[in-house]
Design goal:
This protein is mainly alpha-helical. The protein has six helices and two strands. InterPro entries: Acyl-CoA_Oxase/DH_mid-dom_sf, AcylCo_DH-like_C, AcylCo_DH/oxidase_C, AcylCoA_DH/oxidase_NM_dom_sf, Mycobact_Acyl-CoA_DH.
């Protein structure tokens, strides 16, 4: 449906990231012709779940998060912190989260190239990508201490991505709900 349809209002949502990153849509007495419907009547959630399985899988959030983790590791190295096993453990935990998301997205791509419909794999990948973003953010704050609070520090920059990771590309909760429905064998 065109956003220029009478009664459709699109507005910005102020967020922790740059303006225009998030929007809301308000429908007021909108008349939508049947030609704009994407599928059978009352099957909207089925369509939404399919969209969530395909949305943003190509965005390598884990790769960007791993890049920030590399910067944090370099920051630690420059300060002689890599001799501390707790620092290594913190970095390793975040690296494992990034690598897990990377392996899962490979599974999604593999299933797609074989003509399968990787809904469940995509939902698992999306949750893993969010977990990776958050793990790197937590590691950066833990390791950088007060310097993490400086505007545009590695921790601050990663925090912006981690904060929005569970919203952009299908909310974290929607991904988990979709997985739960499949695992429990419920419809909806």
């Amino acid at each position: 449906m065109p956003t220029a349809t009478p009664g459709v209002e699109v507005g910005d949502i102020d967020a922790v990231v740059h303006p225009g990153a998030f929007h809301h849509v308000v429908f007021t007495d909108v008349r939508v012709p049947a030609s704009c419907r994407l599928g059978p009547e009352n099957e909207g959630f089925t369509i939404v779940r399919k969209l969530l399985a395909n949305e943003r899988v190509g965005v390598a959030r884990y790769h960007r998060a791993a890049g920030y983790l590399d910067r944090v590791a370099k920051w630690c190295d420059e300060r002689g912190l890599l001799d501390d096993s707790s620092v290594i453990e913190t970095l390793a935990h975040a690296r494992v989260a990034c690598d897990a998301a990377r392996v899962l997205v490979y599974q999604v791509w593999d299933e797609r190239t074989r003509g399968l419909h990787p809904d469940e794999s995509a939902w698992v990948y999306r949750t893993a990508a969010v977990n990776a973003e958050r793990a790197v953010s937590e590691a950066a704050f833990k390791l950088m201490g007060a310097e993490a609070l400086v505007r545009h520090s590695h921790a601050d920059n990663q925090f912006e991505w981690a904060t929005t990771a569970g919203i952009a590309g299908g909310s974290y909760e929607m991904q988990l709900n979709s997985l739960a429905r499949v695992l429990l064998g419920t419809k909806g």
